[in-house]
């Protein structure tokens, strides 16, 4: 965007309220044609909204988010393939499945954590399918990384000597782009206080001056 366009977007966002927390400053609008629901990026998980971390970085409200269409689970074993805790007996925002084997079930939070650690080795933890599985997870809002798997390296995901340095907001409003950062003010870059693997400009996620920490969607 041009600087003038960005200022216009900021002014418009200041007038819109988040349909999840009802506070103003919502800069994200559902991409479904005709839907005018707006929300803050940090509120998205609470509202079961999906952000697609590829291509145009599209966002959808709970009503218009992409849905998985899987067959009934062959094994009828309602446990998460990753953490082995109970999952819902149907596919939902919080309970996801593999489109290839149609059998693996897992919590959204579990598969997101696995994606960050597996990096380029990310695949279905049950049937090991990669291409179809990865495309489905991307569409459903799971964020992938291009790092080598954490278990093949001495470094943890988001190593302390390689600080994350760009804004991951669905719509970055910074005139200087996602890589631009400043020491303070609206374009100060905040890293997730839990994983440090994602970042946002203070303004892009509607973080007020009194905000001391920020957590990404994954955490």
TrEMBL record:
Keyword Protein biosynthesis: no
GO cellular component, one term: nucleus
Pfam families for this protein: PHD_G2E3, zf-HC5HC2H
Domain of life the protein comes from: Eukaryota
Residues annotated as domain RING-type: 80-127
Entry's Gene Ontology molecular function annotations: ligase activity; zinc ion binding
PHD-type domain segment(s): 1-65
Alphabetical keyword list: Ligase, Metal-binding, Zinc, Zinc-finger
UniProt-listed InterPro entries: EPHD, PHD-type_Zinc_Finger, PHD_PHF7/G2E3-like, Znf_FYVE_PHD, Znf_RING, Znf_RING/FYVE/PHD
The protein's name: G2E3 ligase
PROSITE patterns: EPHD, ZF_RING_2
Entry annotated with the keyword NAD: no
Source organism of the structure: Brachypodius melanocephalos
SUPFAM superfamilies: FYVE/PHD zinc finger
